[in-house]
Amino acid sequence: VRLVESGGGLVQPGGSLRLSCVGSGYKFGNHYMAWVRQAPGKGPEWVSDINYSGTATYYSDSVKGRFTISRDNSKNMVYLQMNDLKPEDTAVYYCAKDDGPWGQGTQVTVSS
After folding, report:
1. pLDDT tens digits for 74-94?
2. Which DSSP state fits 102?
3. Contact 68, 7 (CB under 8 A)
4. CA-to-CA distance for 3 and 74, rounded, in angstroms?
5. Which of 57-65's residues contact partners 24+ apart within 8 Å by CB, and which partners?
């Protein structure tokens, strides 16, 4: 099983980024997928997850209304569209399969 994230970077407050994650080595469409983040000096924080078909999505209160999770099972991809980014969104973002593992992470830095 392998998960590889991409799309992180440096963005100004109020900006947007789209994270992508490709999964391999398992039946992608048979698993919920999630995004988890870890800010410097803090523990992991669940951000969002999505059900098998993409018809149900869930968000933490801290990102609700600003982030959108989606998936494309034909491409084994899950995405996180992040809008109106804030400095407190700065973290390493990990893609996670429902029963593990996590990817290697992609850094998102929100700063002016």
Report:
1. 999 999 999 999 999 999 999
2. B
3. no
4. 16
5. 62/88, 63/89
Question: Which residues does residue 36 pair with via DSSP β-bridges, in sequence order?
Answer: 46, 94
Beta carbons within 8 Å of 87's beta carbon, 6+ residues apart: 13, 110, 111
Query: 72 vs 21, 53, 105, CA distance in Å?
Result: 10, 9, 20
- What is d(CA 14, CA 30) in angstroms, rounded to the nearest whole number? 35
For residue 81, give the 3-state DSSP assignment.
Answer: strand
- pLDDT tens readout for residues 32-82: 999 999 999 999 999 999 999 999 999 999 999 999 999 999 999 999 999
DSSP SS3 for 60: coil
The helix (run of H) or strand (run of E) holding residue 112 is none
- For residue 25, the Cα-to-chain-centroid distance in whole angstroms is 19
Strand ranges (E), the chain: 2-6, 9-11, 17-24, 33-38, 44-50, 57-59, 67-72, 77-82, 91-97, 106-110
Residue type, 2: R
- The alpha carbons of the chain give a radius of gyration, in whole angstroms, of 13
